[in-house]
Amino acid sequence: MVVRHSSDQGKPGVGVPLEPFLHQVGGHLSVLQYDAHTVCKPLVSQEQKFYESLPLAMRCFTPQYKGTITVHLRRDSRGHLGLVANPLKENLEPFQVSSESRAVALWQTLQQTASSESSPRPLARLARSLKESAAEVLLRSDCHLSTQASPLVESADGNRAARTGFNPWGLHCHQAHLTRLCSQYPEDKRHRILTTLERCTQPLGQRFLLLENVVSQYKQPCILDLKMGTRQHGDDASEEKKARHMKKCEQSTSACLGVRICGMQVYQTDKKSFLCKDKYYGRKLSVEGFRQALFQFLHDGIRLRVELLEPILRRLQALLAVIRGQSSYRFYSSSLLIIYDGEPPQTAPRTSQGGTSGDIDDKVDVRMIDFAHTTKGSWDEHTAYEGPDPGYIFGLENLIGILRDIQEGE
User: Fold this and answer.
1) Do 201 and 254 fall into the same domain?
2) Are residues 257 and 173 in the same domain?
3) How far is CA 326 from CA 167, 181, 187, 320, 336, in A?
4) Where is the signal peptide (predicted)?
5) In the chain, N or C: fewer CB atoms in 10 Å?
6) pLDDT tier for residue 348 given thresholds of 50, 70 and 90
């Protein structure tokens, strides 16, 4: 189902306040939560083209595409800048943000500490409260932020919320997106736009893609974001951008393995918080460091979740078979998510490998995301490719091999 522009009109004054998606572990574009089962991200035409022509065999390995929507910059009654989407036509009532929403509670509390309404800097304020620089908060490779930051988190009605984990990367991307929007308009022009939007007389705003929230079913989603392939620049990249991306690949495991870590969060049952790693950590890993990071992703702070290895490997093998069948596609700069629930089932039958069986396959997932630079030979007569994507296949084969080594070593 594709939502056309005409379906974005909605009722005057009605909008869906978009929450920062607190389980975004990588990427540079802001991913926002539209509702419990839907996220949205800034529209890139190449990515939209991919979703609208998605091969049937790939659909179980990508988020469900739900169309597009218009998103506006708006100031709320407290003076906080935020993003609001026109609701879909089939939504009979405006989406109500729960007062217990973790994302809204955190974001509003951080915005309350900002000194300027027109230039929100909540992450910098959070960093000061933690006696660290913003760079240290966002870029350090090993952070357990939920315990430190939870005293700052309040529900929308001002009540102190229960401690819970969040990944700082999504807030970083959301902050950067708001900053870019503010920089695009001088203060006087931004004031006129905001006033116009409050009257809802013009459909001013950005187009966003609506996608399935692939972690909505998980209580404590553990997520590994892997940048796949040996090449990360698109066909339309400038010489400067091409050189920059080639250097990143050469200096990371992308060149030798065809895969590198772009972000990770893994629930630590002993600390009741997420251990978070970012893309800067992933770029510095050696081959052995990459292997250790995969081991850490499957470790809950107490034990290695060996029961997850076989279902993850089955999904990766199935994806490999699908990619081998996709002639002329090149998935440049796309990512692969490996997901499982950090809160394991209480009881389950044991397998011969010492893990569990039953519904464990339902507790793991593998999804391809980020197709802004994906291309297919038939899309551009000037750039044609034959056969399946060799770089992506190289990365998948190495990833499967390393996970097999971890499985056999335990």
Assistant:
1) no
2) no
3) 34, 38, 49, 10, 16
4) none
5) N
6) low
pTM for the whole structure: 0.77
Residues 65 and 196 in one domain: yes
Total domain count for the chain?
2
The helix (run of H) or strand (run of E) holding residue 33 is: strand 32-35
- Per DSSP, helices labelled H in 200-348 are 239-250, 253-257, 279-283, 287-297, 309-324
List pLDDT tens digits, range 211-256. 999 999 999 999 999 999 999 888 888 889 889 989 889 989 999 9
Q: How far is CA 141 from the centre of its chain?
A: 17
**What are the tens digits of pLDDT across the range 89-132?**
544 343 444 444 555 555 555 544 443 444 434 444 444 444 44
The domain in which residue 132 lies consists of: 5-212
Q: Which residues contact 106 (CB under 8 A, 6 or more apart)?
A: 20, 22, 149, 152, 153, 166, 171
Q: How far apart are the first and last CA of the chain?
A: 45
Summarised one tens digit per residue, pLDDT across range 364-384 is: 999 999 999 999 876 665 677
Q: At a CB cut-off of 8 Å and minimum separation 6, what does 63 contact?
A: 211, 212, 213, 214, 367, 369
- Distance in angstroms (rounded) separating the CA atoms of residues 313 and 404: 8
Phi-psi region for residue 352, left (φ > 0), alpha (ψ -120 to 50) or beta?
alpha
Query: Which of 177, 212, 247 lies at the terminal end of a domain, its last residue?
Result: 212
Compute the distance between CA of residue 261 and CA of residue 279 in angstroms, rounded to an integer: 6
Residues 207 and 123 in one domain: yes
The amino acid sitting at 330 is R
